[in-house]
Amino acid sequence: MKEEIAAAVFFLARLVKRYGCLDNNSRERFAASLTSLLFENYKNHWHPSAPARGQAYRCLRMNSVRLQDPVLEQACERSGVRYEDLGLPQELTVWVDPGEVSCRYGEHSSPFCVSVVDNCRRGDGELSRRIHEAVERASLEWPCSHRCRVSTGEGSVHTPVEHQCSV
């Protein structure tokens, strides 16, 4: 669980660094608060032998129905940052599952892997490289920061190339 949460927080922090309005200290406070919250929330919803069990609970999601994810809102409150300053897209889903962290931009696009934890050992740079690639992919699929949002209505969201996760 520790590696998956670290991968998810690192991924989100990289998005915030690229598209948000937070200085380094604020971003680090946000990341620390989010890490703590995810550990608190996931401890009774983590099932390595059945990774799909509890998946909806471990999903960070914002879209046209729910503009702000409640866990991210709580991390903002705890860290003293404004949610709007994160610069995250209007439609984003991040699944934090045993062995894998996946993401989807837009409600109608295919999910892709941010990290397959089993294949990423600490210190080998693989986790960082994969997350860097996922953030770069975000810049192709989601080119605007929160200051220049574009409509995300039907048909206006770029659909990424389908990516299959290896487990």
TrEMBL record:
Domain called Anti-proliferative protein: residue spans: 88-107
Membrane-spanning residues: none
One cellular component (GO) term of this entry: cytoplasm
Protein family according to the UniProt entry: Belongs to the BTG family.
PANTHER family, alphabetized: B-CELL TRANSLOCATION GENE, PROTEIN BTG4
Protein name: Maternal B9.10 protein-like
The species this protein was found in: Pundamilia nyererei
